Automatic annotation (TrEMBL):
<dbReference type="GO" id="GO:0005739">
    <property type="term" value="C:mitochondrion"/>
</dbReference>
<dbReference type="InterPro" id="IPR004631">
    <property type="entry name" value="4NH2But_aminotransferase_euk"/>
</dbReference>
<dbReference type="InterPro" id="IPR015421">
    <property type="entry name" value="PyrdxlP-dep_Trfase_major"/>
</dbReference>
<keyword id="KW-0032">Aminotransferase</keyword>
<comment type="similarity">
    <text>Belongs to the class-III pyridoxal-phosphate-dependent aminotransferase family.</text>
</comment>
<dbReference type="GO" id="GO:0030170">
    <property type="term" value="F:pyridoxal phosphate binding"/>
</dbReference>
<dbReference type="InterPro" id="IPR015424">
    <property type="entry name" value="PyrdxlP-dep_Trfase"/>
</dbReference>
<dbReference type="InterPro" id="IPR005814">
    <property type="entry name" value="Aminotrans_3"/>
</dbReference>
<dbReference type="Pfam" id="PF00202">
    <property type="entry name" value="Aminotran_3"/>
</dbReference>
<dbReference type="InterPro" id="IPR049704">
    <property type="entry name" value="Aminotrans_3_PPA_site"/>
</dbReference>
<keyword id="KW-0663">Pyridoxal phosphate</keyword>
<keyword id="KW-0808">Transferase</keyword>
<dbReference type="GO" id="GO:0009450">
    <property type="term" value="P:gamma-aminobutyric acid catabolic process"/>
</dbReference>
<dbReference type="GO" id="GO:0034386">
    <property type="term" value="F:4-aminobutyrate:2-oxoglutarate transaminase activity"/>
</dbReference>
<dbReference type="InterPro" id="IPR015422">
    <property type="entry name" value="PyrdxlP-dep_Trfase_small"/>
</dbReference>
<protein>
    <recommendedName>
        <fullName>4-aminobutyrate aminotransferase</fullName>
        <ecNumber>2.6.1.19</ecNumber>
    </recommendedName>
</protein>
<dbReference type="GO" id="GO:0005829">
    <property type="term" value="C:cytosol"/>
</dbReference>
């Protein structure tokens, strides 16, 4: 393993803080509270942890308005790949291509910039295995909605026998939001899933009621997502977990055969993130592929949070070696861009303007995404993530032995730094997160009582040592 003194990343962040620093007695501190009071007049500040000072955030440390500096294991909800104020990304900001992308914001569907083919080809260098094309979007939820649109149009294209023509009945009925022009079709997702807060993505989301209350929803099914016993390599747990996979796969097939609306697509996260860091086994993900092929259903993998290296592979579902490759893979967050990868050209609609909006993505974000991908490969950050994650998991296992009830279902072994565990109650989880913050570590939760770790890809063993020391202190205070 690389020692911190020989790390590649010293040249990224030679002035990164050596330790967290908290100078206020409370978080949020007085200056942050003042900012929040002012901001609340024009913005909903109720979810805010603190007001960040991004000018003074660096590498794996985020600063707030009060001068507190936190070791960041949340990274903008898993969205920072290379740390704060990364010099390579700052360099890209000054390029001619970025100037054109930001100042002239192309409506790419009608007026694509000359650089668009290059940006797309750079992104495709990092596409999941088997994927050869990319469609760009504006956010993770937008990527999901566009992928669903592509799936529905593909499904109907196959159903009508590849015809490029629409019947008069289809053309007239669609204007009244009625079949056959607006067909009754469904996407099957999973309980505890999170795919976004828009309308179609909201109908597929099933993690917390607050995400979708008062919104009209499609009548779409939610299957059971496997809930495993840990550790996974325990022989007894292996048997139980295999049965759990088979139980859930059976439910998927039963829903496909019994739902009163034809199911056009299955949508799944390889690790349900907002829903509690629930992992899907390679066996389960391949089983879904077999089911989709058997039933002529589109298979969509949502890699918005799991993608771009955090699990130790560029794309988490690649651990499953799904054969043949899935149909669509959505991305966002750590790529700082959004969209979906695919390989079958029939997912390109048969007529122009069917998959379309003013911007069709964002070339500025595509430029950033390509640079992030190139830096990951140039500096072998996947190896970095795996080494750091393996070390961190072993340290957490030792804390689990010390405080067993505070580290339930510790999960994420051999999945990079994509690690989580459960506390006995949501109140204890929230208290732990607050203690971590006042001691200089910014950490997030998920589901009701889980802690999830989402550091940047530049997080090193030296950072792990700081975090484990602080975590041990905070859990010890709760334990006693």
């Amino acid at each position: 393993m690389k020692d911190a003194t020989t790390s590649t990343f010293n040249k990224y962040y030679p002035n990164e803080p050596a330790e967290p620093r908290v100078v206020t007695d409370t978080i949020p501190g007085p200056k942050t509270q003042s900012h929040l009071e002012s901001l609340s007049r024009v913005f909903d500040t109720r979810p805010s942890y603190f007001v960040a000072d991004y000018d003074h955030s660096l590498g794996n440390y985020i600063a707030d308005a009060d001068g507190n500096t936190y070791l960041d294991l949340y990274a903008q909800i898993s969205s920072i790949a290379l740390g704060y104020n990364n010099p390579k990304l700052i360099e890209v900001i000054g390029s001619k291509e970025m100037k054109n992308a930001l100042v002239n914001r192309p409506a790419m569907g009608n007026f694509p910039p000359m650089e668009l083919a290059h940006h797309s080809n750079v992104l495709l260098k990092f596409a999941p295995k088997g994927q050869t094309r990319v469609w760009n979007a504006l956010s993770g939820a937008d990527a999901i909605e566009l992928a669903m649109k592509a799936a529905f149009m593909y499904f109907m294209r196959i159903k009508r026998g590849e015809s490029n023509y629409f019947t008069p009945d289809e053309l007239s009925s669609v204007m009244d939001n009625k079949p056959p022009g607006s067909p009754d079709l469904a996407v099957l997702s999973f309980k505890r899933a999170f795919h976004g807060r828009l309308f179609a993505s909201g109908s597929a989301t099933c993690s917390k009621p607050i995400h979708k209350l008062d919104l009209p929803a499609f009548r779409w099914p939610h299957a059971e997502f496997p809930f495993y016993e840990y550790p996974l390599d325990d022989p007894e747990n292996k048997t139980k977990n295999q049965k759990e996979d088979d139980r859930c796969l059976k439910i998927v097939e039963e829903l496909i055969n019994s739902w009163d609306i034809p199911i056009a697509a299955i949508l799944i996260e390889p690790i349900q993130s907002e829903g509690g860091d629930n992992h899907a086994s390679p066996y389960f993900l391949q089983g879904l592929r077999d089911i989709t092929l058997k039933n002529g259903i589109v298979y969509i993998i949502d890699e918005v949070q799991t993608g771009v290296g955090a699990t130790g592979k560029f794309w988490c579902h690649e651990y499953a070696n799904i054969d043949p490759p899935v149909d669509l893979v959505t991305f966002s967050k750590k790529f700082q861009s959004a969209g979906y990868f695919f390989h079958d050209e029939r997912f390109i609609p048969n007529k122009p303007y069917r998959q379309f909006n003013t911007w069709c993505g964002d070339p500025a974000r595509m430029l950033i995404a390509g640079t992030i991908g190139e830096e990951i490969m140039k500096h072998n950050l996947l190896l970095q993530v795996n080494e750091t994650g393996d070390y961190m998991f072993k340290e957490l296992e030792m804390l689990q032995s010390k405080y067993p009830k505070f580290f339930g279902r510790l999960r994420g072994k051999n999945r990079g730094t994509f690690i989580a565990w459960d506390l006995p109650t949501s109140e204890l989880r929230d208290e732990l997160l607050a203690k971590l913050r006042i001691n200089g570590c910014n950490v997030g939760g998920c589901s009701d009582k889980s802690v999830r770790l989402r550091p940047s890809l530049t997080f090193e063993i030296k950072h792990v040592k700081i975090f484990i020391r602080i975590l041990d202190k905070c859990v010890g205070e709760l334990y006693n």
